[in-house]
Amino acid sequence: MPLGDHLRELRARLLRAVLVFIAVFIGSLFFYEELLALVMRPYNDAREVLGQSVETKAYVKGATGPLLLQLKLCAVAAIVLTSPYWLYQIWAFVVPGLHRHEKKWSRIFAAVAGPLFLAGVAMGYYVLPKGLEVLIGFTPAAMENLVEFGEYFSFFTRMLLVFGVAFEIPLFVVMLSLAGVVSGKTLGKYRPWIIVGTFIFAAVATPSTDPFSMLMLALPMLVLFLAAEILARLIDRFRGRKRAATEWADDELSPL
After folding, report:
1. Phi-psi region for residue 62, left (φ > 0), alpha (ψ -120 to 50) or beta?
2. Does position 256 have pLDDT exceeding 60, yes or no?
3. For tag attachment on the chain, is the N or C end more exposed, with fewer CB atoms within 10 Å?
């Protein structure tokens, strides 16, 4: 396809994605209260656990704060809700340029990546109240903790995004194994360093500083890495058998 046709196709797909985003964004405005309750639930759970030990209150800053809060919250909700559609548009734009075997593995990647990301987001949402409880718990007894919603919402989205992306890393390891870049034997050799690196990554990546959040990110990642190593070894074994069968066939045909 000529470059001009590629650019026109890209423009058309981007326009479709933007129109769907705008429609879902407008629809999200009607469910603002429900979305706000969903975002505030981890903070309210942490405040309930803290009880009277720490006085904490959420607030919105500035005259334009409430409006910006509503727009930002609905925009993030629209991005998440429309992600299957705009991911499909990216997929549909890229797939025609792939070979047949590349399309097969990329379909597997697309099928597994979404559920893994959602599992990571769900884990982050589950861990968030405990992280907030620990962080707010450092407030001195003589002081009141005021949580500005803009900062809290940024913390909320970073936390969920980190967990979601972290759950994708073992999948990339499997894809590298399928591509022949990494072998299962190599992963087994460097397993101790992978374990140490996973805990370091979890400690650095989590926005909260409590050890509970770090462990809740590191432990599932280690399980996924172990599963990735097992799959990589199975892939190596299958590739070895296929290579041996090919060499045997070549030896059988060589006298001819």
Report:
1. left
2. no
3. C
